[in-house]
Amino acid sequence: MTKCPRCFHPVDPNNYVWMCVSGRCEAKPDPAASAFTGGPVASGPILQLRQAPGAAPGWAPPDGAACPTCNERTPEVCAMCHYRYPEGWRQAQATCIAMAGARATGKSLYIAVVIKQLEQLGERLGCSVEPATQLTQTNYQTYYEKPLYEERGLMQSTQRADVEGSYQREPLIFSLGLWGGVRRYVVIRDVAGEDLESSASQALHLSFFANADGVFFMFDPLKVSEIRDQLMDLVPSQLRIGGEPKTVLSNVLMSVGIGTPKVAVILSKFDALQALRKVDGSEWSQLMANPGAAYLRDPSMSVRYNDVDGELLHQEVRSLLLKLHAGPLVAAVENPTSGAPIPFRFFAVSALGDSPIGENIHSRGIAPFRCVDPVRWILSPVGVL
Ligand SMILES: Nc1nc2c(ncn2[C@@H]2O[C@H](COP(=O)(O)OP(=O)(O)O)[C@@H](O)[C@H]2O)c(=O)[nH]1
Ligand SMILES: [Mg+2]
Ligand SMILES: [Zn+2]
User: Fold this and answer.
1) 189 vs 267: CA distance, rounded Å
2) Which ligand has its closest atom nearest to the C-alpha of 358?
3) Range(s) of the domain holding residue 282
4) N or C: at which end does the chain have fewer Cβ atoms within 10 angstroms?
5) Is the CB of 95 inside a 6 Å radius of any atom of ligand 1?
6) Which atom of ligand 1 is nearest to the CA of 242?
7) Which of 71, 87, 103 is the last residue of a domain?
8) Each residue of 300-317: b (16+ CB within 10 Å) or e?
9) pLDDT tens digits, one per residue of 76-87
10) 6 Cβ contact partners less than 8 Å away, ≥ 6 residues apart
């Protein structure tokens, strides 16, 4: 069974909904689509067909429902949020990932870079990783790839979802090719940290967290003043600093509710911690010069996700988080207030590999570190990548 790329609800095998997109029929305000998008949406006529009780096994609706008004063939949409499924979506399998974290923790740059890394990994493994829809291709190019890889600059902060034209309303859908005879996709939903820092985090347009397969929670070490102080003369200070990680994690876990996504707690901007190697005589310089540490190696692009390395890294990052005064955060995933255990793992990544200078990336270019690890951890149970 697969999931809707926008609301992440499982696709119901007994319920089919189509929407007229001919443009010739009157579009009316669509409360369901608006609530799940976070802004006003108008939709063409909507048709629904439910399987009748006692229908024969293998029941399927007639192929290609036609709009009763204009008679045009209508595409299938999600029954919950009216998102138009890509072609053949029901027969495919999608792994759905939701980004989380306070403002400026590095979520959007991570997406920009991890997609490139997944493409490279795909090449190495002989499968192609590519945008599954025209909209994903355009949005990825415009908002992620171009600012970073062409203009060599940083990205704009992600706007709140209720701001007209905020790009994260659209999921990023990437095809991973055929695995075990099934078309596989990975869907990534970016969010604005600002939406997660406030009570807006309970809104319907963020309800996808509950149905996600993976939640990537980013923790920014530069938010820790002790680290910023030590780095002062070593790397340019960053212009944007975000909100309280613990508040955001609580809001995210509240949105997850009774859902059971795997939670990757990711120590981002790891290059900044690695730079502490140069601070003479400090505890951090010793930690960052430890030749045996998994957090100083990067085997992430190897043929298979290495679970043993992943477990080692997990333990090491756990102790780094405790040193970064993130004990409450560690406790929140290890002993969740809901009482229901959360499957979680700690990671360390750097999207850029080096500190940016003002609004530009470093002249040495982009050197990602361990970016694909969390994605491979989420995908490993389905045997993909
Ligand atoms: N040193 C370093 N800084 C980073 C890295 N990734 C992001 N940043 C910094 O963090 C800022 C916010 O990144 P962005 O991805 O827009 O954060 P978002 O608000 O969580 O989406 C960027 O402008 C960079 O200055 C990284 O890998 N290394
Ligand atoms: Mg962002
Ligand atoms: Zn949906």
Assistant:
1) 19
2) 1
3) 92-382
4) N
5) no
6) 19
7) 87
8) bbeeebbeebbebbbebb
9) 999 999 999 999
10) 36, 37, 78, 81, 83, 170, 171, 189, 208
Q: How far apart are CA 135 and CA 143, in angstroms?
A: 12
DSSP 127: -
Residue 31 has what pLDDT? 96
Q: Calculate how far, in angstroms, residue 200's C-alpha sits from the geometric centre of ligand 1.
A: 23
Does 140 lie in the same domain as 247?
yes
* Mean pLDDT to the nearest integer, 90-116: 97
Question: 338 and 375, same structural domain?
Answer: yes
Please give the distance, rounded to the nearest whole angstrom, from the Cα atom of residue 105 to the centre of ligand 1: 6
Protein residue whose Cα sits closest to atom 1 of ligand 1: 355
Here the CATH number for the domain that contains residue 260 is 3.40.50.300
Q: Are residues 68 and 16 in the same domain?
A: yes
For position 203, what pLDDT does the model report? 86
CB atoms within 10 A of CB 246: 16
User: How much is the pLDDT for 202?
Assistant: 78
Q: Name the average pLDDT for the chain.
A: 93
If one counts the domains in the chain, the total is 2
367 C-beta neighbours (distance < 10 Å), count: 14
Amino acid at 85: Y
Whether residue 352 is found in the same domain as residue 371: yes
- 149 shares a domain with 75: no
- Among all chains, which residue has been given the structure tokens 């508040």? 247
Q: Do 262 and 310 contact (CB within 8 A), yes or no?
A: no
Phi, psi of 41 (to 5 degrees): -130, 135
AA letter at 363: S
d(CA 290, CA 285): 9
Pocket mutation for ligand 1, best pick of 105, 109, 111, 274 (most atoms within 8 Å of C-beta): 109
Protein residues near ligand 2, an ion, with CB under 5 A: 107-108, 158
The stretch 273-291 carries a mean pLDDT of: 91
Q: Is 310 in the pocket of ligand 1 (CB under 6 A)?
A: no
Q: Does residue 315 share a domain with residue 172?
A: yes
pLDDT in tens, 196-239: 998 766 789 899 999 999 999 999 999 999 899 899 888 888 87
Query: How would you classify the pairing of strands 15-19 and 76-77?
Result: antiparallel
